């Protein structure tokens, strides 16, 4: 089985997924957590409320401490970065740092779930996360 980062980048590159994930993010959703839940669902890992809560707590802490500030700086710098090549270069570094932070979060989520075995029962992680039925259907179609 591919690791979570490889799974996430492969899924994210599928037609329509990036746009759907960004819309999920704009509505307050956590894309890394969403991709992790898609991974767990695809692996048929048993959904248990305490497992989902653990992932949500970990992701929320990471998002508030790292992702949200980096994303805010990147978004705020858009107009500023257009003024000079040097400023744009700095914004590109912010984008790379934001992506590195997302990768690290996915690695941490993968570590938390590494000993969760698959099951033969349905594992509706995406629905339990609260993703819309349209987003769930799109992700499941691409799994």
Automatic annotation (TrEMBL):
This is TIGR02444 family protein. NCBIfam families: TIGR02444 family protein. InterPro entries: CHP02444. It comes from the Bacteria. It comes from Atopomonas hussainii.
């Amino acid at each position: 089985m591919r690791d979570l980062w490889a799974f996430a980048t492969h899924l994210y590159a599928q037609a329509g997924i990036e746009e759907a994930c960004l819309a999920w993010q704009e509505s307050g959703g956590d894309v890394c957590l969403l991709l992790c839940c898609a991974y767990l669902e695809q692996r048929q890992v048993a959904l248990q409320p305490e497992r989902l809560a653990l992932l949500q707590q970990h992701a929320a802490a990471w998002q508030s401490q790292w992702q949200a500030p980096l994303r805010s700086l990147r978004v705020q710098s858009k107009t500023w970065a257009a003024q000079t090549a040097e400023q744009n270069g700095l914004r590109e570094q912010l984008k790379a740092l934001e992506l590195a932070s997302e990768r690290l979060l996915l690695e941490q989520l993968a570590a938390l779930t590494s000993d969760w075995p698959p099951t033969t029962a349905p594992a509706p992680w995406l629905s339990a996360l609260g993703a819309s039925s349209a987003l769930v259907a799109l992700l499941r179609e691409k799994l």
